[in-house]
Design a protein that fits this description.
It contains 9 helices and 17 strands. The chain is an alpha+beta fold. The chain folds into 2 domains: about 220 residues, PmbA/TldD fold; about 210 residues, no CATH class. Strands 3-2-1-4-5-6 form a 6-stranded antiparallel sheet. A 5-stranded mixed barrel has the order 7-12-13-14-17. Helix 1 crosses helix 2. The longest helix is centred in the N-terminal third of the chain and has 17 residues. The radius of gyration is 24 Å and the shape is globular. The mean pLDDT is about 95.
Length: about 450
């Protein structure tokens, strides 16, 4: 289905919903093609190809709201589906806050070329993808007698959609993505350590395709025979690959739904300090070829660059249309795009070198954060640091604290964020962090 056909179908769906009695409606037509390959110990374990297309429609009927989806896109089937959906909506409870966004909030066109679509990806044949995954696996397979298993994973996706609303929005988007991963499991004296290495890109030609297996093997070997440390307060470095784990609870606390439901430890803290002055985060949806780049969100609200945290001061929440109305706040999008965090001058090795006695965290294992209070506890694995060097691996320890105070302990930032991630966050050094072990 080409783009003009998608627009025609979406417009027909919206028009028919209005004829059936809806005051407002929005329709999204989407297509997605994906491939997933898993190879385990030089044998193809899974080979999947998926092609999906469908329509989702949001209906606003007599102050009542519902959302429906279908993959039956023939005209007669779709018209009947919409009629039944409108009738079903009439039986729901009223919600005075449900409506489409104000048209003034919509994306009006223009902007830089985002470059989020790889036109060459669809022409890459299955053998090339399988060979790529096999090459990555073979970088580690058979390289150490302690290896239990080696796996590699390749995946890609091609997606496109159009969005049409009854109050004037028309917009379309398209994107591609490619991912490659290697994973290694080994037998140690005190357990079976495992680790992985992953690379991703919007473009097949730009995907890093070498050394993933070698890096996964090296990381796994380094985790052999870990020890626990005595509980106490330590300087802690969180590696860039996993530092987002401790930022995610902050993001959740910034969403309109969490604020309205009193599940946010950041309620009422706009223009207040919530972190060290070293930390800033900007939401920038217009980065060329950014993984999260977009002109508008899933409601059609125009995407704009804005500060979220500036020198430790909270500047903005993530507010969608619905919770914006309930909270009396102007909607600015309920989801993130590309989040760019502040960086420092040191790479990871230099951060480690600055620590006399502490912990490098390279992974989190379970745990949770209480959204209302900010209290958190996570299992960790990583390495003990002494005099600027890695001494031995550690695990079976927990990091605990409260998000309201934790981010004030940020003492330094690395310069090593991963450009292929939509959350560009570097390795982070925190002082005086509670770790429980022996």
């Amino acid at each position: 289905m080409n783009i003009s056909e998608k627009y025609s179908l979406a417009e027909m769906a919206v028009d028919h919903a209005l004829k059936c009695g809806a005051e407002q409606a929005s329709a999204n037509i989407y297509e997605n093609r994906s491939n997933n390959i898993e190879i385990r110990d030089q044998k193809i374990d899974s080979l999947k190809e998926s092609n999906r297309s469908g329509l989702s429609i949001n209906l606003y009927v007599n102050k009542k709201y519902s959302s429906h989806s279908t993959n039956r896109l023939k005209k007669e089937d779709l018209l009947k589906f919409i009629e039944e959906a409108v009738n079903a909506t009439r039986f729901l409870a009223e919600d005075e806050f449900r409506s489409l966004p104000d048209p003034e909030l919509y994306y009006k066109g223009g902007g830089p070329d985002l470059g989020t679509f790889d036109p060459k990806l669809d022409a890459v044949d299955a053998k090339t993808k399988i060979d790529l995954a096999m090459d990555v696996l073979n970088e580690a397979y058979g390289k150490d007698e302690r290896i239990i298993s080696v796996s590699s994973y390749y995946s890609d996706s091609i997606s496109s959609s159009v969005l049409v609303t009854s109050n004037g929005f028309r917009g379309d988007s398209a994107g591609t993505g490619v991912s490659l991963t290697a994973s290694v499991s080994m037998k140690g004296e005190t357990g079976r350590p495992n680790d992985y290495w992953n690379e991703n890109s919007l473009f097949f030609d730009k995907l890093v395709k070498k050394d993933l297996g070698a890096k996964a093997l090296e990381r796994t070997k380094n985790k052999m025979n870990p020890k626990k440390l005595v509980s106490g307060k330590y300087p802690v470095i969180i590696e860039n690959r996993v530092s987002a784990n401790l930022l995610y609870p902050v993001y959740q606390a910034l969403t309109g739904s969490s604020i309205y439901q009193k599940q946010s430890f950041l309620i009422g803290k706009i223009n207040q300090k919530i972190a060290s002055q070293l930390f800033s985060a900007i939401d920038d949806p217009l980065i060329p070829s950014g993984p999260g780049s977009r002109y508008f969100d899933d409601e059609g609200i125009a995407a704009v660059k804005r500060p979220i945290i500036e020198n430790g001061i909270l500047k903005s929440y993530y507010i969608d249309n619905y919770y914006g109305k309930k909270l009396g706040m102007k909607p600015n999008s309920g989801s993130s795009s590309n989040v760019i965090c502040s960086t420092g001058n040191k790479n990871l090795k230099e951060l480690i070198g600055s620590v006399k006695k502490g912990i490098l965290i390279t992974g989190f294992i379970g745990g949770n954060c209480n959204g209302s209070t900010g209290d958190f506890s996570y299992g960790i694995e990583g390495f003990y640091i002494e005099n600027g060097g890695l001494i031995h691996p550690v695990n079976e320890m927990n990091i605990t604290g409260n998000m309201n105070s934790f981010w004030f302990n940020l003492a330094d930032l690395g310069n090593d964020f991963r450009e292929s991630d939509s959350l560009r966050i570097p390795s982070l050094l925190f002082d005086n962090i509670d770790l429980s072990g022996i």
